[in-house]
Write a structure and sequence with these properties.
The structure holds two protein chains of two kinds. Chain A is an all-beta fold. Helices cover 0% and strands 50% of the residues of chain A. Chain A is built from no helices and eleven strands. Chain A has strands spanning 5-7, 10-13, 19-24, 31-37, 44-50, 53-57, 64-68, 74-78, 87-94, 103-104, 108-112. In chain A, strands 2, 4, 5, 6, 9, 10 and 11 form a seven-stranded mixed beta sheet that branches. Chain A has a four-stranded antiparallel beta sheet with strand order 1-3-8-7, with no helix packed on it. In chain A, a hairpin with an 8-residue loop joins strand 9 (87-94) and strand 10. Chain A starts with a strand and ends with a strand. Chain B has strands spanning 4-5, 11-14, 19-25, 32-38, 45-50, 54-58, 61-66, 71-76, 85-93, 96-100, 104-109. In chain B, the strands form two sheets. In chain B, strands 2, 4, 5, 9, 10 and 11 form a six-stranded mixed beta sheet that branches. In chain B, a hairpin with a 2-residue loop joins strand 6 (54-58) and strand 7. Classes of the chains: A mainly beta, B mainly beta.
Chain lengths: 113, 110
Amino acid sequence: DAGVTQSPTHLIKTRGQQVTLRCSPISGHKSVSWYQQVLGQGPQFIFQYYEKEERGRGNFPDRFSARQFPNYSSELNVNALLLGDSALYLCASTIGGGSDTQYFGPGTRLTVL
Amino acid sequence: QKEVEQNSGPLSVPEGAIASLNCTYSDRGSQSFFWYRQYSGKSPELIMSIYSNGDKEDGRFTAQLNKASQYVSLLIRDSQPSDSATYLCAVYSGNTPLVFGKGTRLSVIA
């Protein structure tokens, strides 16, 4: 079975631009979470979606938004990019919306110049 | 603010030795505990999950949980150079799916 997939793998943007990252969960998983990991730090929670509804939001500005589609795939959008948004963006999928084990995709490496 | 603390390392152990990785957490209501391994430039990979006090063994890995002390650890027996990576402790506490520590960098010396 395919694991969590993310696209694109790498992305280079300039300050002020907008970016959309995509994630497809493991088949049968209904929840997707997004994390940001900057170099030398652990992943920081951004959003969780379960059954297409937002279940949780981390301490990130409104420039960050996300949604989940009927097929449970998800998009993370970041507007007005800042240099500090450069990071590895991770998507994780779980079967349900609670404390289930989360399985991570390969990540999208975003560089903002 | 819910926090998970880990020594950043690096922790260096010789090949064949036991590596001991430690983690403390601030929220007494935490329910689920996870250890992930992350190689440089890659995404986290689940090693172990543990939910109740005591030890849980899986191959060369043993997770230990002590909720009274708010402490969780990971032991790696017969450490191999391929175990060299950053080990992330993660805790589930309420609405935030996972709160991660900063990770401990492990180096196994051949």
